[in-house]
Amino acid sequence: MTATPDSRAFAIREIPFSRQGSWFNISSVTAQHSQAEDLHLVSHQNGMHAVLRFVPLDPSSGARARTAWTATPAMLAWEGDAGRIALVYESADTVRLRGDMLDLAITPADQELTPFTGTYFYRDPVDGSYHFTSYETGRRYRVTPLGGAVATAEGLEGLAGADRRLVLSGPRGWEAVVEEIDSARQPYAARGDFAAAAAAHAGAFRDFADAVAPLPAGEAPAAELAAYVLWSATTRPAGLLRRPAVLMSKHWMDKVWSWDHCFNALALARGLPDLAWDQFQIPFDHQDESGALPDSVTHSEILFNFVKPPIHGWALRRLRERLPRQPESAELRETYRRLGRWTDFWLRARTAPGLRLPHYQHGNDSGWDNATTFDGRRVLITADLAAFLVLQLAELAELAKDLGESDAAERHLGTADAVQDALLEELWSDGRFGSRSPHSGEVSTSRSLLDLMPIVLGERLPREVADRLAERIAEHLTPHGLATEHTGSPHYLSDGYWRGPIWAPATVLVEDGLRRAGHTALADEIGRRFLRLCETSGFAENFDALTGEGLRDRAYTWTASSYLLLADGQHSRSAASGPR
Question: Interior CA angle at 120 toward 116 and 126, to 5°?
Fold first, then answer.
């Protein structure tokens, strides 16, 4: 995806059409790395499921019409030579459709219906609406034709492989509404005409964008699109998610992972502080008895088979700096308690007897799933983990001070110093950080950027350590950004997940640490290259470090948030320095 002169337009094949609060989107992406010929209604309740397929038809022949898709944050359209179909959100669970000189067939995404899978189709005798009932999502999709629409149904109440479809048409145009509902709802009553729905949809996005991306377009040309990626991926509370949640994507990465959420919280903090605070707290709502955070949370699933790194102290410090107002004392005290339990998890459940530093049980715990740091061993004491824990303990000390608990503050700082001392004494050698097996004590090194992440300690690092880390980080810098595996490594892979591609969170963490360690020129250059990368290649999950090509999921919220964070920082520094 390339940012176009009209920054409002985007490629629907890369970014789904949706809106804040909705649990479904319209997209041709129907599964991981799977592009369909037609646009589908894709729900994220009970997982990612393509439910309905939309096929534009030629009114004269009934055959598929040749159309092109156009999408902006305000409206999605099928554009044909002679006609047009437009779609807008009327509310989070309702879309309005309007057709002119084109008909539309709505069918189940999968025509096969079994006792346990598929979509059942029937007409409701109460109001005459048409219902597609999905086993996979556990929801109903009600289609109500509006004035001027002619609805032709096939396969009503059919089973097995019966051909089920609803065709909407009208000689002078037609309109209809599609709703995602739980079980039953009053018959649809229009809240206004199509134009009013379109205006309300556009206005809702405009308000969001103005709040989270108030940057001059010339400085951050992709800021509005980044705001749309965040807005469209936000869901209302439902299922296991008790708060409004920014999913990592409304493609297949439709979860909240327990470190991704931190970057979204930071990007939202200045303009939408309540939504930002909710993002930070989501994983803590599901903290277990040991203090561990889940690996991920989504509508109907919580996973604890792995965890994620304790970057939450780092994130909370920056979140509190960015919030226009501080949380009330009771909320701050509860956050202090939660963060303390998460810290104790690492100090107790993940620190072996007699050892001074905690360990990961797998690369997945680090967030850098397959990084070469873990090639020799998966259960490993790593430098990044210790560094993050130092920052978390330091933030606990700040919280304790704010809450009037000076003794606790001194205790947290003492533990932070002890962990940092162990980090430098046990893992720093010959100008580099290594990793250590908690079983054998054997030390290993790699050419992964992960081994350089202690730069996040910033001003806490001894000068000679910070300088050497900065030198090595600079060796990872390509024309597009920071490669997660050194490009000269024999293990480098262009699309190797954490074995080469550029990632947003690593970029933000390194940029911040370098800046606080005094290496501002390198931090500035890393930020500039990442901004340019997103403006050229969009908000992909990660990027080819040598070509800049977007990889994997192409509508990833932490990438969009990282763009907004870095752009905001660049703008603030420029404003502070005054005119040149």
Answer: 135
Which tens digit of pLDDT belongs to each residue from 450-485? Answer: 999 999 999 999 999 999 999 999 999 999 999 999
Q: How far apart are CA 228 and CA 205, in angstroms?
A: 7
The pLDDT of residue 575 is 87
Buried b (16+ CB within 10 A) or exposed e, 88-118: bbbbbbbbbbbbebbbbbbbbbbbebeeeeb
Give residue for tokens 């991306």: 213
d(CA 267, CA 432): 32
Residues of the chain above pLDDT 90, percent: 94
pLDDT digits over 389-430, tens only?
Answer: 999 999 999 999 999 999 999 999 999 999 999 999 999 999
pTM of the model: 0.96
Distance CA 240, CA 258 (A): 15
Which of 383, 408, 385 lies closest to 395, judged by CA? 408
Element (H, E) at 564: helix 557-577
* Residue-level length of the chain: 580
Name the burial class of residue 63, with classes exposed (0-12), middle (13-18) and buried (19+) by CB atoms within 10 angstroms of its CB. Answer: exposed
Please report where in the chains the tokens 């001894």 appear, as a residue.
462
Rounded to whole angstroms, the Cα distance separating 543 from 527 reads 15
Q: If you search the block for the tokens 């709502």, which residue do you land on? A: 285
Which tens digits make up the pLDDT trace of 537-575?
Answer: 999 999 999 999 999 999 999 999 999 999 999 999 988
d(CA 243, CA 235): 9
DSSP 21-81: B-SEEEEEEEETTEEEEEEEEEE-TTS-EEEEEEEEE-TTT-SBPPEEEEE-SS-EEEEES
Strands 174-181 and 234-235: unpaired
